[in-house]
Amino acid sequence: MPQVITFGETMVLLSPLKAGSLQEAHLYERSFGGAESNVAIGLARLGIEAGWFSRLGK
């Protein structure tokens, strides 16, 4: 069982690969963000067992 469990929402961050307006971008770099997820990831990188859970809406 994890030592720390976080809960909350995680967001998908989309960043265009080329400079310019978002409307003209065709390729994006995808990453994940959100305070809860970042804490769990940071703790796991430090060797602490961490878990995360959330809930999807309808």
Automatic annotation (TrEMBL):
It comes from Laceyella putida. The keyword Transferase applies. The keyword Amino-acid biosynthesis does not apply. One of its GO terms (molecular function) is kinase activity. It comes from the Bacteria. This is PfkB family carbohydrate kinase. Residues 1-58 form the Carbohydrate kinase PfkB domain. Keywords: Kinase, Transferase.
